[in-house]
Amino acid sequence: MTDRVKVAVLGGGSFGTVLANLIGSKGEQVYLWMRNAERAEEINRSHENHRYLPGRPLSENLTATADLQQALQDAEIVFVSIPSQSFREVIRQAKPFLRADQIVVSTTKGIEAKSFSLMSQILSEELPGNPIGVISGPNLAKEIVQQQLTATVIASEDERVRTAVQQILHCAFFRVYASSDMYGVELGGTLKNIYAIASGLSAALGMGENTKSMLMTRSLAEMSRFAVQLGANPMTFLGLAGVGDLIVTCSSPLSRNYRVGYALGEGKTLEDAVESLGEVAEGVNTLRYVKEKADELEIYMPLVSGLYEVVFNHAPVSQVAKMMMLNTQSSDVEFVLPRADL
Ligand SMILES: NC(=O)C1=CN([C@@H]2O[C@H](COP(=O)(O)OP(=O)(O)OC[C@H]3O[C@@H](n4cnc5c(N)ncnc54)[C@H](O)[C@@H]3O)[C@@H](O)[C@H]2O)C=CC1
Ligand SMILES: O=C(CO)COP(=O)(O)O
């Protein structure tokens, strides 16, 4: 008999592989599910994911598989690391193999088209009986695989989920903090991708450190304004899943969203910028959906509106930036001085 926890990670891209490897390196048995059987075999043979993490040896406790049933049947915790566009489809494929006592945790930082659902909402709809949670925080896959110190947030209304995920993930280079604001934590990770594009763009255009700081701080104001309108707790944005993830994604060329912005700033087309990544950059679609939602709910989001014009309507950045700078005067922290009281 063994008391080792069995875990499944769905999605064999950058983050799924890094997460499975972290769990495996703690001595737990982990299945990494991917749709491509040849690639799974190759990972098991070489103990390396050449496509997403070349040159990084993976734990011997990690088994890659293209067989969903094999991955899921004994798992106590299932992490889902599938881009938002395919998230529901994969959950529906997994559903026949899942029992109601299995914990399901999303790592995905995106929004479903049309429904404007976050991944936790998809999980609640598709798996109403399962305990669910989300993780989010400053978690660049390529730094975690190098064991650079960082932390994440496990958010769930269910205390058992928070404790189980803290136990399975925490280690000397990865701390796991808890939250009960699942929606806020998830929105933080999702919305910051938009502002990472804006940051990459401004870096490519040679904007200074004052500009960068203003951009990040006003991004935080805008994100929390939007999230509060949608029912999240604004205090969540002071934590790792809010300001923590915003800082890293707006500062690092390891962020794919930042790189898309940078490429746009260098004059590449959106199609070229996205294609040259070869990985998902959730922020592009998120920008589209959040712009629509903000218009519908009449939420003031000047950065989203301005970036939307630049990315999708080819508006010149200088013109958009000038318009924003000369906009009506506003409040710094609107939880201190509400905009309506100006
Ligand atoms: N890479 C990172 O640093 C981090 C990523 N995330 C989030 O995790 C999610 C996944 O990101 P990455 O792994 O980085 O993306 P990625 O682009 O590196 O890999 C995505 C993986 O999903 C697979 N996939 C896509 N559609 C599928 C389908 N229908 N069925 C089966 N597999 C499918 C792809 O084949 C690929 O292996 C994203 O929402 C991202 O925002 C979260 C934290 C950090
Ligand atoms: O969410 C991330 C880091 O926390 C990864 O960001 P990108 O998807 O922009 O690479």
What is the domain total for the residues?
Answer: 2
Heterogens: 1,4-dihydronicotinamide adenine dinucleotide, 1,3-dihydroxyacetonephosphate
Q: State the CATH topology of the largest domain.
A: Rossmann fold
**Terminal Cα separation, in Å?**
66 Å
How does the helix and strand content classify structurally?
alpha/beta
- How much strand? 5-15%
Q: At the first level of CATH, what is the class of the largest domain?
A: Alpha Beta
Task: Give the CATH H-level superfamily of the largest domain.
Answer: NAD(P)-binding Rossmann-like Domain
SSE order, one letter for each helix or strand = EHEHEHEHEHEHEHEHHHHHHHH
In this structure, how is the largest beta sheet organized? 8 strands, mixed
Strand order across the biggest sheet? 3-2-1-4-5-6-7-8
Number of strands: 8
Helix content: 40-55%
The Cα radius of gyration reads: 20 Å
Number of helices: 15
Domain Glycerol-3-phosphate dehydrogenase NAD-dependent N-terminal: 6-160
InterPro entries: 6-PGluconate_DH-like_C_sf (IPR008927), 6PGD_dom2 (IPR013328), G3P_DH_NAD-dep (IPR006168), G3P_DH_NAD-dep_C (IPR006109), G3P_DH_NAD-dep_N (IPR011128), NAD(P)-bd_dom_sf (IPR036291)
Enzyme class: oxidoreductase
Binding site for sn-glycerol 3-phosphate: 109, 137, 192, 245, 255-257
